Amino acid sequence: MSLRYLLLSLLLGLSQPSFAFNLCRSPWTEFSNEPGRFGAFPETHVSYFRFSFQVPSDKKVNLRIRGQIPKGRYATFNLYDQETRSSLGSIPDSLFPMDTPQLQNQASPGAPFTLWITPDKALNHSYELWYRIYLPQEDIQGGVNLPVIEAFDSESHLPTPCPLALESLPAPEGSLLGFSNLPPKPTEDGEIFFYASRGLGFYNNADNQYLVARLNFSQKKSFALFRFKSPSFGLEKPGQPRPEVRYFSFCMGSAKTTRTSGCISDEEFILGETETFLLVGPETESGVNIRELCKAHGINFLPKGKNFIPLIIYRNVLAREDFPGRVNTDFLWPPTNEQINKAEASRLFAQHNFLGSYSPVGKQLDLIESLDWIKSKH
Questions:
Q1: What's the predicted TM-score (pTM) here?
Q2: Residue 31 is part of which domain span?
Q3: Both 203 and 292 in a single domain?
Q4: pLDDT tens, position by position, 16-52
Q5: What is the rounded CA–CA span in Å between residue 195 and residue 212?
Q6: How many Å separate Cα 297 from the centre of its chain?
Q7: Gap between the terminal Cα atoms of the chain
Q8: Which residues, in sequence order, are CB contacts of 182 under 8 Å at separation 6+?
Q9: If we measure between CA atoms, which residue out of 364, 309, 359 comes closest to residue 196?
Q10: Which CATH number characterizes residue 102's domain?
Q11: Beta 86-92 vs 74-81: how paired, if at all?
Q12: Percentages of the chain per state (helix, strand, coil), in multiples of 5
Protein backbone atom coordinates (compact mmCIF):
# COMPACT_ATOMS: atom_id res chain seq x y z
CA MET A 1 0.00 0.00 0.00
CA SER A 2 1.29 3.48 -0.74
CA LEU A 3 0.19 6.97 0.12
CA ARG A 4 -1.09 8.54 -3.10
CA TYR A 5 -1.87 12.21 -3.54
CA LEU A 6 -3.79 13.19 -6.65
CA LEU A 7 -5.80 16.29 -7.46
CA LEU A 8 -9.49 15.54 -7.64
CA SER A 9 -9.76 17.02 -11.14
CA LEU A 10 -6.79 14.95 -12.31
CA LEU A 11 -8.21 11.68 -10.99
CA LEU A 12 -11.75 12.10 -12.27
CA GLY A 13 -11.25 13.99 -15.49
CA LEU A 14 -13.99 16.11 -17.04
CA SER A 15 -15.37 13.31 -19.22
CA GLN A 16 -15.59 10.63 -16.52
CA PRO A 17 -18.72 9.99 -14.47
CA SER A 18 -18.79 11.20 -10.89
CA PHE A 19 -17.62 8.96 -8.09
CA ALA A 20 -19.80 8.22 -5.09
CA PHE A 21 -18.37 7.84 -1.62
CA ASN A 22 -19.25 6.16 1.65
CA LEU A 23 -18.53 8.30 4.72
CA CYS A 24 -16.45 6.52 7.38
CA ARG A 25 -17.91 7.86 10.59
CA SER A 26 -15.73 9.04 13.48
CA PRO A 27 -12.57 7.32 12.29
CA TRP A 28 -10.05 9.35 14.30
CA THR A 29 -8.74 8.49 17.76
CA GLU A 30 -6.71 11.10 19.63
CA PHE A 31 -3.28 10.02 20.85
CA SER A 32 -2.36 12.06 23.90
CA ASN A 33 0.85 14.11 23.95
CA GLU A 34 0.57 14.56 27.72
CA PRO A 35 3.97 13.97 29.37
CA GLY A 36 4.33 10.50 30.85
CA ARG A 37 1.02 9.16 29.60
CA PHE A 38 1.85 7.14 26.46
CA GLY A 39 4.97 5.59 24.97
CA ALA A 40 6.49 5.91 21.47
CA PHE A 41 8.28 9.15 22.48
CA PRO A 42 5.49 11.63 21.58
CA GLU A 43 6.41 15.29 21.12
CA THR A 44 4.47 17.39 23.64
CA HIS A 45 3.90 20.27 21.18
CA VAL A 46 2.14 18.04 18.63
CA SER A 47 -1.50 16.96 18.25
CA TYR A 48 -1.80 13.31 17.21
CA PHE A 49 -4.81 11.60 15.63
CA ARG A 50 -4.89 8.08 14.21
CA PHE A 51 -7.17 5.80 12.22
CA SER A 52 -6.53 2.04 12.49
CA PHE A 53 -8.04 -0.14 9.78
CA GLN A 54 -7.78 -3.42 7.89
CA VAL A 55 -7.77 -3.82 4.14
CA PRO A 56 -9.78 -6.95 3.17
CA SER A 57 -8.23 -9.48 0.80
CA ASP A 58 -11.30 -9.86 -1.44
CA LYS A 59 -11.64 -6.31 -2.71
CA LYS A 60 -9.79 -3.11 -3.32
CA VAL A 61 -10.57 -0.33 -0.86
CA ASN A 62 -9.76 3.23 -1.85
CA LEU A 63 -9.98 6.11 0.58
CA ARG A 64 -10.55 9.80 -0.02
CA ILE A 65 -9.44 12.24 2.68
CA ARG A 66 -10.87 15.74 2.64
CA GLY A 67 -9.93 18.46 5.05
CA GLN A 68 -8.63 21.97 5.58
CA ILE A 69 -5.09 23.12 6.25
CA PRO A 70 -4.89 23.63 10.04
CA LYS A 71 -3.40 26.66 11.73
CA GLY A 72 0.01 25.69 13.01
CA ARG A 73 3.62 25.23 12.07
CA TYR A 74 3.26 21.98 10.15
CA ALA A 75 0.86 19.11 9.45
CA THR A 76 1.42 15.69 7.93
CA PHE A 77 -0.14 12.30 7.22
CA ASN A 78 1.84 9.09 7.78
CA LEU A 79 0.73 5.60 6.83
CA TYR A 80 2.01 2.74 9.02
CA ASP A 81 2.11 -1.01 8.93
CA GLN A 82 0.36 -1.74 12.22
CA GLU A 83 2.48 -4.82 12.85
CA THR A 84 5.84 -3.06 12.58
CA ARG A 85 4.71 0.43 13.69
CA SER A 86 7.02 1.88 11.04
CA SER A 87 6.13 4.48 8.43
CA LEU A 88 5.36 3.30 4.90
CA GLY A 89 5.11 6.84 3.55
CA SER A 90 4.27 10.40 4.46
CA ILE A 91 3.05 13.60 2.89
CA PRO A 92 3.62 17.05 4.47
CA ASP A 93 1.17 19.94 4.23
CA SER A 94 3.31 21.64 1.57
CA LEU A 95 2.40 18.76 -0.77
CA PHE A 96 -1.30 18.47 0.11
CA PRO A 97 -3.18 18.86 -3.20
CA MET A 98 -5.34 21.95 -2.86
CA ASP A 99 -8.90 21.83 -4.18
CA THR A 100 -8.35 25.36 -5.52
CA PRO A 101 -5.48 25.13 -8.06
CA GLN A 102 -4.14 28.63 -7.39
CA LEU A 103 -3.58 27.68 -3.74
CA GLN A 104 -1.50 24.62 -4.64
CA ASN A 105 1.60 24.26 -2.40
CA GLN A 106 0.76 27.39 -0.39
CA ALA A 107 -0.61 25.46 2.57
CA SER A 108 -2.79 28.43 3.55
CA PRO A 109 -4.70 27.85 6.81
CA GLY A 110 -8.31 26.93 6.09
CA ALA A 111 -7.65 26.01 2.45
CA PRO A 112 -9.39 22.75 1.43
CA PHE A 113 -7.37 19.74 0.26
CA THR A 114 -8.07 16.22 -0.99
CA LEU A 115 -5.80 13.19 -0.58
CA TRP A 116 -6.15 9.58 -1.68
CA ILE A 117 -4.98 6.28 -0.22
CA THR A 118 -5.00 3.55 -2.86
CA PRO A 119 -3.82 -0.02 -2.25
CA ASP A 120 -1.29 -1.23 -4.79
CA LYS A 121 -2.93 -4.62 -4.46
CA ALA A 122 -5.57 -6.23 -2.26
CA LEU A 123 -4.05 -7.13 1.08
CA ASN A 124 -5.60 -8.65 4.16
CA HIS A 125 -3.48 -6.47 6.38
CA SER A 126 -3.75 -3.90 9.15
CA TYR A 127 -2.64 -0.31 8.85
CA GLU A 128 -2.72 2.95 10.76
CA LEU A 129 -3.05 6.42 9.32
CA TRP A 130 -1.67 9.14 11.60
CA TYR A 131 -2.43 12.83 11.25
CA ARG A 132 -0.11 15.23 13.08
CA ILE A 133 -0.27 18.98 13.70
CA TYR A 134 2.83 20.66 15.13
CA LEU A 135 2.29 23.75 17.28
CA PRO A 136 -1.47 23.87 16.56
CA GLN A 137 -3.18 27.21 17.07
CA GLU A 138 -6.64 27.97 18.51
CA ASP A 139 -7.21 24.34 19.54
CA ILE A 140 -5.60 20.92 19.18
CA GLN A 141 -7.12 20.61 15.68
CA GLY A 142 -5.61 23.87 14.48
CA GLY A 143 -8.94 25.71 14.35
CA VAL A 144 -10.51 23.42 11.71
CA ASN A 145 -12.46 20.17 11.73
CA LEU A 146 -10.61 16.88 11.51
CA PRO A 147 -10.35 15.51 7.96
CA VAL A 148 -13.21 13.39 6.63
CA ILE A 149 -12.42 9.87 5.37
CA GLU A 150 -14.59 8.25 2.68
CA ALA A 151 -14.42 4.91 0.86
CA PHE A 152 -15.04 4.28 -2.85
CA ASP A 153 -14.47 1.78 -5.65
CA SER A 154 -12.33 3.27 -8.40
CA GLU A 155 -13.58 0.78 -11.00
CA SER A 156 -17.36 0.92 -10.46
CA HIS A 157 -17.34 4.55 -9.21
CA LEU A 158 -19.70 3.36 -6.46
CA PRO A 159 -19.41 3.60 -2.69
CA THR A 160 -17.74 0.66 -1.01
CA PRO A 161 -17.89 -0.31 2.66
CA CYS A 162 -15.32 1.45 4.77
CA PRO A 163 -12.37 -0.70 5.80
CA LEU A 164 -12.80 -2.50 9.07
CA ALA A 165 -11.90 -0.10 11.85
CA LEU A 166 -9.54 -1.66 14.37
CA GLU A 167 -8.74 -0.93 17.96
CA SER A 168 -5.60 1.17 18.04
CA LEU A 169 -2.63 -0.66 19.46
CA PRO A 170 -1.19 0.49 22.77
CA ALA A 171 1.93 2.59 22.46
CA PRO A 172 5.08 0.48 22.26
CA GLU A 173 7.23 0.14 25.36
CA GLY A 174 11.00 -0.16 25.60
CA SER A 175 11.02 -3.90 24.98
CA LEU A 176 10.64 -3.19 21.27
CA LEU A 177 13.67 -0.94 21.32
CA GLY A 178 16.05 -3.56 22.64
CA PHE A 179 18.35 -2.17 25.28
CA SER A 180 21.37 -3.61 23.47
CA ASN A 181 20.60 -1.20 20.63
CA LEU A 182 20.64 1.94 22.76
CA PRO A 183 23.18 4.64 21.92
CA PRO A 184 26.36 4.63 24.03
CA LYS A 185 26.47 6.06 27.52
CA PRO A 186 28.46 9.24 28.15
CA THR A 187 32.20 8.74 28.11
CA GLU A 188 34.25 8.39 31.30
CA ASP A 189 34.87 12.15 31.08
CA GLY A 190 31.12 12.79 30.91
CA GLU A 191 31.01 13.72 27.21
CA ILE A 192 27.64 13.13 25.52
CA PHE A 193 27.36 12.41 21.80
CA PHE A 194 24.33 12.12 19.55
CA TYR A 195 23.60 9.31 17.12
CA ALA A 196 21.26 9.01 14.15
CA SER A 197 18.08 6.94 14.44
CA ARG A 198 15.19 6.25 12.07
CA GLY A 199 12.79 5.75 14.96
CA LEU A 200 11.48 2.54 13.41
CA GLY A 201 8.93 0.65 15.48
CA PHE A 202 7.76 3.78 17.29
CA TYR A 203 5.46 5.39 14.70
CA ASN A 204 8.32 7.43 13.29
CA ASN A 205 7.39 10.50 11.28
CA ALA A 206 9.01 9.98 7.89
CA ASP A 207 9.38 13.78 7.51
CA ASN A 208 11.61 13.87 10.60
CA GLN A 209 15.29 13.35 11.19
CA TYR A 210 16.19 12.09 14.65
CA LEU A 211 19.35 12.38 16.72
CA VAL A 212 19.39 10.54 20.05
CA ALA A 213 21.78 10.62 23.01
CA ARG A 214 21.84 8.53 26.16
CA LEU A 215 22.37 10.21 29.52
CA ASN A 216 23.62 8.76 32.81
CA PHE A 217 22.48 10.97 35.66
CA SER A 218 23.75 10.24 39.16
CA GLN A 219 23.64 11.93 42.55
CA LYS A 220 26.91 13.65 41.72
CA LYS A 221 26.31 14.37 38.03
CA SER A 222 22.63 15.29 37.85
CA PHE A 223 22.89 17.84 35.02
CA ALA A 224 23.76 17.79 31.33
CA LEU A 225 24.78 20.85 29.32
CA PHE A 226 24.32 20.78 25.54
CA ARG A 227 25.51 23.13 22.82
CA PHE A 228 24.60 23.20 19.13
CA LYS A 229 24.25 25.52 16.17
CA SER A 230 20.56 26.25 15.67
CA PRO A 231 19.13 25.85 12.16
CA SER A 232 16.87 28.53 10.78
CA PHE A 233 13.27 27.38 11.19
CA GLY A 234 9.65 28.27 10.48
CA LEU A 235 7.22 28.54 7.60
CA GLU A 236 8.47 29.48 4.17
CA LYS A 237 7.55 33.07 3.29
CA PRO A 238 7.55 34.76 -0.14
CA GLY A 239 10.64 36.84 -0.78
CA GLN A 240 12.57 35.38 2.19
CA PRO A 241 15.18 32.61 2.34
CA ARG A 242 13.67 29.19 2.88
CA PRO A 243 14.24 28.03 6.48
CA GLU A 244 16.68 25.15 6.91
CA VAL A 245 14.05 23.14 8.83
CA ARG A 246 10.34 23.59 9.38
CA TYR A 247 10.62 22.83 13.10
CA PHE A 248 13.03 21.50 15.70
CA SER A 249 12.79 20.42 19.32
CA PHE A 250 14.48 18.51 22.13
CA CYS A 251 12.58 15.97 24.24
CA MET A 252 13.51 13.98 27.32
CA GLY A 253 12.21 10.45 27.65
CA SER A 254 12.79 6.98 29.09
CA ALA A 255 14.27 4.10 27.12
CA LYS A 256 12.40 1.67 29.38
CA THR A 257 8.90 3.09 28.94
CA THR A 258 9.42 5.21 25.76
CA ARG A 259 7.35 7.88 27.49
CA THR A 260 8.26 11.54 27.15
CA SER A 261 8.70 13.63 30.28
CA GLY A 262 8.97 17.01 28.52
CA CYS A 263 10.04 18.90 25.41
CA ILE A 264 11.30 22.34 24.44
CA SER A 265 10.28 23.65 21.01
CA ASP A 266 12.27 25.92 18.70
CA GLU A 267 10.05 28.93 19.43
CA GLU A 268 10.81 28.57 23.15
CA PHE A 269 14.58 28.66 22.68
CA ILE A 270 16.79 31.63 23.41
CA LEU A 271 19.13 31.38 20.43
CA GLY A 272 22.79 32.32 20.36
CA GLU A 273 24.49 33.88 17.34
CA THR A 274 26.96 31.04 16.92
CA GLU A 275 26.03 28.52 19.63
CA THR A 276 22.82 27.77 21.50
CA PHE A 277 22.93 26.12 24.92
CA LEU A 278 20.47 23.87 26.72
CA LEU A 279 20.77 22.82 30.36
CA VAL A 280 18.98 19.62 31.38
CA GLY A 281 18.62 18.74 35.04
CA PRO A 282 16.36 18.68 38.12
CA GLU A 283 14.05 21.63 38.57
CA THR A 284 15.33 22.08 42.12
CA GLU A 285 18.41 20.72 43.86
CA SER A 286 19.86 21.42 47.31
CA GLY A 287 17.29 24.17 47.81
CA VAL A 288 18.16 25.93 44.55
CA ASN A 289 15.32 26.49 42.05
CA ILE A 290 17.25 25.71 38.87
CA ARG A 291 14.36 26.47 36.52
CA GLU A 292 13.83 29.97 37.93
CA LEU A 293 17.57 30.63 38.06
CA CYS A 294 17.93 29.72 34.38
CA LYS A 295 14.93 31.89 33.51
CA ALA A 296 16.44 34.85 35.35
CA HIS A 297 19.71 34.43 33.45
CA GLY A 298 18.08 33.87 30.05
CA ILE A 299 19.20 30.25 29.80
CA ASN A 300 17.34 27.42 28.08
CA PHE A 301 16.29 24.73 30.55
CA LEU A 302 14.59 21.35 30.19
CA PRO A 303 13.73 19.24 33.27
CA LYS A 304 15.37 15.84 33.21
CA GLY A 305 12.23 14.15 34.53
CA LYS A 306 12.11 10.83 36.36
CA ASN A 307 13.28 8.72 33.45
CA PHE A 308 14.76 5.25 33.79
CA ILE A 309 17.61 5.07 31.28
CA PRO A 310 17.12 8.68 30.14
CA LEU A 311 17.33 9.62 26.48
CA ILE A 312 17.28 13.02 24.82
CA ILE A 313 15.86 13.25 21.30
CA TYR A 314 16.61 16.06 18.84
CA ARG A 315 14.07 16.37 16.02
CA ASN A 316 14.48 18.21 12.72
CA VAL A 317 11.33 18.39 10.58
CA LEU A 318 11.52 18.74 6.78
CA ALA A 319 15.22 19.54 6.68
CA ARG A 320 16.25 21.21 3.44
CA GLU A 321 18.24 19.04 1.04
CA ASP A 322 21.16 21.49 1.13
CA PHE A 323 21.08 21.96 4.91
CA PRO A 324 24.59 21.11 6.21
CA GLY A 325 23.02 19.79 9.42
CA ARG A 326 21.07 17.01 7.71
CA VAL A 327 21.49 13.74 9.58
CA ASN A 328 24.03 11.39 8.02
CA THR A 329 21.89 8.28 7.54
CA ASP A 330 24.87 6.26 6.27
CA PHE A 331 25.92 5.97 9.92
CA LEU A 332 22.78 4.94 11.77
CA TRP A 333 22.86 3.54 15.27
CA PRO A 334 23.17 0.67 15.99
CA PRO A 335 25.79 -0.32 13.42
CA THR A 336 25.37 -3.61 11.62
CA ASN A 337 27.75 -6.41 12.43
CA GLU A 338 29.26 -6.07 8.99
CA GLN A 339 30.11 -2.41 9.49
CA ILE A 340 32.08 -2.16 12.70
CA ASN A 341 32.03 -3.25 16.33
CA LYS A 342 30.07 -1.06 18.75
CA ALA A 343 33.07 0.00 20.81
CA GLU A 344 34.72 1.60 17.80
CA ALA A 345 31.41 2.80 16.34
CA SER A 346 30.60 4.76 19.51
CA ARG A 347 33.32 7.18 18.46
CA LEU A 348 33.04 7.03 14.67
CA PHE A 349 29.24 7.11 14.38
CA ALA A 350 28.74 10.21 16.57
CA GLN A 351 27.01 12.72 14.32
CA HIS A 352 29.21 15.71 15.16
CA ASN A 353 31.84 13.94 13.05
CA PHE A 354 29.65 14.65 10.02
CA LEU A 355 27.50 17.65 10.94
CA GLY A 356 29.98 19.71 12.90
CA SER A 357 28.37 22.18 15.29
CA TYR A 358 24.89 21.47 13.87
CA SER A 359 24.98 18.22 15.85
CA PRO A 360 24.49 18.78 19.58
CA VAL A 361 27.20 17.61 21.96
CA GLY A 362 26.96 17.61 25.73
CA LYS A 363 28.72 17.25 29.05
CA GLN A 364 27.48 15.82 32.35
CA LEU A 365 27.86 18.31 35.23
CA ASP A 366 27.36 18.40 38.97
CA LEU A 367 25.43 21.12 40.81
CA ILE A 368 28.45 23.36 41.49
CA GLU A 369 29.63 23.14 37.88
CA SER A 370 26.14 23.96 36.67
CA LEU A 371 25.74 26.96 38.98
CA ASP A 372 29.16 28.30 37.98
CA TRP A 373 28.22 28.01 34.31
CA ILE A 374 24.85 29.71 34.83
CA LYS A 375 26.51 32.60 36.66
CA SER A 376 29.11 32.96 33.90
CA LYS A 377 26.30 33.60 31.42
CA HIS A 378 24.82 36.52 33.36
A1: 0.90
A2: 2-165
A3: yes
A4: 346 788 888 778 999 999 999 988 999 999 999 999 8
A5: 5
A6: 30
A7: 55
A8: 214, 255, 309, 311
A9: 359
A10: 2.60.120
A11: antiparallel
A12: 15, 35, 50
